[in-house]
Amino acid sequence: MKKIAVFLLCAVLIFTFAGCSNSSNTQSQKEDKKVKVGFIYVGPIGDGGYTYAHDQGRLYLEKELGVETIYKESVKEDKAEVEKVVEDMIDQGATIIFGTSFGFQEGLLSSAKKHPDIKFLHCSGYETAENMGQYFGKIEQMRYLTGIVAGLKTKTNKIGYVAAFPIPEVIRGINAFTLGVKSVNKDATVKVVWTNTWYDPAKEKDAAIALIDDKCDVITQHQDTAGPQQAAESRGVFSIGYNSDMSKTAPKANMTSAVWNWGPYYVKTVKEIMDGTWKSGKYWGGIEDGVVDIAPLTQVAPENAKEAVEKAKEDIKSGKLVIFKGPIKDQTGALKVEDGKTMTDDEVWNMDYFIEGVEGSIPKK
């Protein structure tokens, strides 16, 4: 009996230790598969615009999926600098990395090749790899809507546009905005000034002031801060923001903003990666995905703008209104898109010319 008792006791101990070991291994495997998401930002999260909008998406991701995130602010658009930030994030345990600025592309692509086990997502570029995808949104849809507001508001028929860099992303936004202006005001023009920077509040303000001095009474922008909004308010003219709702920054000037809502995209993408269903590709979501929107019109917006914007917004949603549909002419009057023809996504994505109604030139590379 004693021998049987000893045998049974040993058996119990063996199974107990085995169970602990299996539990420990399972826990270890779970920890190994734990998701940590890194975000690389071109500006500070307090810029009130572009980086702020992405960071709101990051916080939404944490809330919805409970994943841990890390981020790095004000990273230079330099290959070596981006690679350095990526290595640091991987050392901290990041398994997914989002690079949120066009100029991060080269560094992210190089890092993706070095780390095939890490998933990379790049915002607004064109390069992909097996473990690196691209993402952006059809903000030009919202540019068109804000153009309607500007076209209805201007008295001088001169609208100023503070633009960052002469890349297709910015060019198609200017063109879409101008088409919106022209849809309600054939006499208005849009004058463009380049700053060649994403984040420089002082330079953006100066560019806006130069446009105001040139009789522009509505100012809009493709910049990362609210500098142009503040310039408009200081000079007693009106403005349209970008990236996030900028009404609080310039309450006496701002009429609305074309805004990003990155949260749903970040949740969807990270969940796909966690589920093992993600595949590299190019995402370009529109109003139907909720990734782009227009901020509520403020009290300084023209009275008839709300109805016009709501109608155009519904028409975009239904497909009745297509932003880049011919006839479209360039600044020289040359026909670029024939009457009734719709531009393809590739043609819109790579747009490298200004349409009729835009004043200013695109610097040669």
Describe this protein's structure.
The protein is of the alpha/beta class and 365 residues long. The protein folds into 2 domains: 35-138 and 262-289, 3-Layer(aba) Sandwich (Rossmann fold), CATH 3.40.50; 140-259 and 295-359, Response regulator (Rossmann fold, 3-Layer(aba) Sandwich), CATH 3.40.50. Helix content is 42%, strand content 19%. The protein is built from 11 helices and 15 strands. The protein has helices at residues 2-32, 50-65, 79-91, 105-114, 140-153, 168-184, 201-213, 227-235, 263-275, 305-318, 345-349; strands at 36-40, 68-72, 96-99, 119-123, 132-137, 158-163, 189-194, 218-222, 238-243, 254-260, 282-285, 292-294, 328-329, 335-337, 358-359. It has a 7-stranded mixed sheet, sandwiched between helices. Strands 2-1-3-4-5-11 form a 6-stranded parallel sheet, with helices on both faces. Strand 8, helix 8 and strand 9 (238-243) form a beta-alpha-beta unit. Helix 3 (79-91) packs across helix 4 (105-114), helix 5 packs across helix 6 and helix 5 runs antiparallel to helix 10. It is globular. Mean pLDDT is 92; it is low at 1-32. This is Nucleoside-binding protein. Keywords: Signal.
Helix and strand arrangement:
Layout: H1 2-32, E1 36-40, H2 50-65, E2 68-72, H3 79-91, E3 96-99, H4 105-114, E4 119-123, E5 132-137, H5 140-153, E6 158-163, H6 168-184, E7 189-194, H7 201-213, E8 218-222, H8 227-235, E9 238-243, E10 254-260, H9 263-275, E11 282-285, E12 292-294, H10 305-318, E13 328-329, E14 335-337, H11 345-349, E15 358-359
Parallel strand pairs: 1-2, 1-3, 3-4, 4-5, 5-11, 6-7, 6-8, 7-15, 8-9, 9-10
Antiparallel strand pairs: 10-12, 13-14
Helix pairs in contact: 2-9, 3-4, 5-6, 5-10, 7-8
